[in-house]
């Protein structure tokens, strides 16, 4: 029985929930389509989304979060506000209907960026998480891990205007990476660390193997 079921205490849903995590520039976004294609090839209906975002309100909040300076606690609460809407409008209905959800970031990102990176008090994060999704965690989280220097070089080479997170200093991303790895140590069955400092083809083969071994018959 998957973690979704255990945490909800309800009848088992047919859908599964997969999230992708990692610091900016880790390369996770380019692999999400590959996992979605793998699932669809198995006849699985997939709901693909991202956080913050995923709904009209969530996308509006995303713009504020990525580009407007704000107090740390405001930032954390807006992250969870967007998440609550995302859960209500897309994630929970999809899982209940038997669809699999593949999402770019979820609450692990808030722990890494706001708690680890910015210093939000852990008890405040835990209170928000317990309020917004008390019995729901992803069935599988793929954490793309690589040195911050490599990630920064990738972001710079992309040539896009950096958002306010991408403009943070190296020490910020060192703390974010450490927080991600701490989260993985606390939930080793759910969070699988992927060496993202490799060729995309090797990473794709690795994550497809993990998905097959953990979630597919």
From TrEMBL:
<dbReference type="GO" id="GO:0006227">
    <property type="term" value="P:dUDP biosynthetic process"/>
</dbReference>
<dbReference type="GO" id="GO:0006235">
    <property type="term" value="P:dTTP biosynthetic process"/>
</dbReference>
<feature type="binding site">
    <location>
        <begin position="22"/>
        <end position="29"/>
    </location>
    <ligand>
        <name>ATP</name>
    </ligand>
</feature>
<dbReference type="InterPro" id="IPR027417">
    <property type="entry name" value="P-loop_NTPase"/>
</dbReference>
<keyword id="KW-0418">Kinase</keyword>
<keyword id="KW-0545">Nucleotide biosynthesis</keyword>
<protein>
    <recommendedName>
        <fullName>Thymidylate kinase</fullName>
        <ecNumber>2.7.4.9</ecNumber>
    </recommendedName>
</protein>
<dbReference type="InterPro" id="IPR039430">
    <property type="entry name" value="Thymidylate_kin-like_dom"/>
</dbReference>
<keyword id="KW-0547">Nucleotide-binding</keyword>
<dbReference type="GO" id="GO:0005524">
    <property type="term" value="F:ATP binding"/>
</dbReference>
<dbReference type="Pfam" id="PF02223">
    <property type="entry name" value="Thymidylate_kin"/>
</dbReference>
<dbReference type="GO" id="GO:0004798">
    <property type="term" value="F:dTMP kinase activity"/>
</dbReference>
<keyword id="KW-0067">ATP-binding</keyword>
<comment type="function">
    <text>Phosphorylation of dTMP to form dTDP in both de novo and salvage pathways of dTTP synthesis.</text>
</comment>
<dbReference type="GO" id="GO:0006233">
    <property type="term" value="P:dTDP biosynthetic process"/>
</dbReference>
<keyword id="KW-0808">Transferase</keyword>
<dbReference type="GO" id="GO:0005829">
    <property type="term" value="C:cytosol"/>
</dbReference>
<dbReference type="InterPro" id="IPR018094">
    <property type="entry name" value="Thymidylate_kinase"/>
</dbReference>
<comment type="similarity">
    <text>Belongs to the thymidylate kinase family.</text>
</comment>
<feature type="domain" description="Thymidylate kinase-like">
    <location>
        <begin position="20"/>
        <end position="207"/>
    </location>
</feature>
């Amino acid at each position: 029985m998957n973690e979704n079921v255990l945490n909800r205490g309800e009848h088992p849903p047919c859908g599964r929930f997969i999230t992708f995590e990692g610091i900016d520039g880790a390369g996770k976004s380019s692999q999400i389509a590959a996992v979605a294609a793998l699932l669809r090839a198995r006849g699985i209906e997939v709901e693909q989304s991202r956080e913050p975002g995923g709904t009209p309100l969530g996308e509006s909040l995303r713009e504020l979060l990525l580009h407007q300076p704000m107090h740390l606690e405001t930032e954390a609460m807006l992250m969870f506000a967007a998440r609550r809407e995302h859960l209500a409008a897309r994630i929970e209905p999809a899982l209940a209907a038997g669809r699999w959800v593949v999402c770019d970031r979820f609450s692990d990102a808030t722990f890494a960026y706001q708690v680890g990176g910015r210093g939000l008090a852990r008890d405040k994060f835990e209170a928000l998480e317990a309020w917004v999704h008390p019995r729901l965690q992803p069935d599988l989280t793929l954490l793309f891990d690589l040195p911050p220097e490599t990630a920064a070089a990738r972001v710079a080479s992309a040539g896009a205007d950096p958002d306010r997170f991408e403009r943070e200093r190296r020490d910020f991303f060192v703390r974010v990476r450490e927080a991600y790895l701490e989260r993985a140590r606390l939930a080793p069955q759910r969070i699988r660390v992927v060496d993202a400092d490799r060729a995309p083809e090797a990473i794709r083969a690795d994550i497809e193997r993990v998905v097959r071994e953990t979630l597919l018959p």
